[in-house]
Amino acid sequence: MSRRRIIAGNWKMNKTPSEAVALCAELKDLVKNDAVDVVYCVPAIDIVPVVEAVKGTNVHVGAENFYIVDNGAFTGEISAPMLKDAGVEYVIIGHSERRDIFGENDILINQKVKKAFASGLTPILCCGESLALRKADTYKEWIERQITWDLDGVTADQVKKLVIAYEPIWAIGTGETATADQAEEVCGLIRALIAKLYDQATADEVRIQYGGSMNAGNAAELLSKPNIDGGLIGGASLKPDFGKIVNA
Ligand code: 3PY
């Protein structure tokens, strides 16, 4: 089974609209690669200018968040139909920063996954353990529980289109990266869980990324692992280095 690689940048809360357009111009030639899906997941205010700036290139646009209701009295939120209409194709769901800082739990994350699919958006569903869970050696059970809850009621056909990002929290924004073997162990475990929850054909199609300080120096080794189909890239997605990761 050959899965198409997907390298997505998670810009987090960085880049004003004009800086975002300048970054798209800077990266345009560096991220050219027809064999890879390249995605920029950008702050809500950057979506419209970034969609415009990447027109005619190989870059797809993603959002970093949305709410599960189409419209109404939800001050400060943005809906899936708004994202779709603006030209967004992917959306990050359940990033550890949303879980930890904004208190999102697996019930909401599960609703978001279902709503994203129902709205024609592809979720990039994040999971990952804290340093305490890694040290206590309970990280495998934790990740299995997150994925099982987050995919409750999601169909096999949807999971075949899903992207899962394994992001150990201890490797996010710390400069620490999981070793390629540590990342492969968990990505393999996630694929085996999908086979158990659904079937082998679904597990063979779901794309699993590693995220957590992936950079130009470690991307090639991480991406050489059989269960790692791409990366969700933080800080390095804001630099020319992103092109090196796309082409690693
Ligand atoms: C990181 O690499 O810092 C990320 O959180 C990617 O999502």
UniProtKB/TrEMBL annotation:
Which species does this protein come from?
Answer: Butyrivibrio hungatei
Q: Which NCBIfam families match?
A: tim (TIGR00419)
Family the UniProt entry places it in: Belongs to the triosephosphate isomerase family.
What InterPro entries does this protein map onto?
A: Aldolase_TIM (IPR013785), TIM_sf (IPR035990), TrioseP_Isoase_bac/euk (IPR022896), Triosephosphate_isomerase (IPR000652), Triosephosphate_isomerase_AS (IPR020861)
Isomerase keyword on record:
yes
Q: Where does substrate bind?
A: N10, W11, K12, G173, S213, G234, G235
Q: What is this protein called?
A: Triosephosphate isomerase
> Membrane spanning segments where?
none
Q: What's any one GO cellular component for it? A: cytosol
Q: What lineage is this protein's organism placed in?
A: Bacteria, Bacillati, Bacillota, Clostridia, Lachnospirales
Might you give the EC number(s) for this enzyme?
A: 5.3.1.1
Q: Where in the cell is it found?
A: Cytoplasm
Which pathway does it operate in?
Carbohydrate degradation; glycolysis; D-glyceraldehyde 3-phosphate from glycerone phosphate: step 1/1; Carbohydrate biosynthesis; gluconeogenesis
Q: Name one GO biological process term.
A: glyceraldehyde-3-phosphate biosynthetic process
HAMAP family from the xrefs? TIM_B
Q: Which Gene3D superfamilies match?
A: Aldolase class I (3.20.20.70)
Among CDD domains, the record links this protein to:
TIM
Kindly list the GO molecular function terms attached to this UniProt entry: triose-phosphate isomerase activity
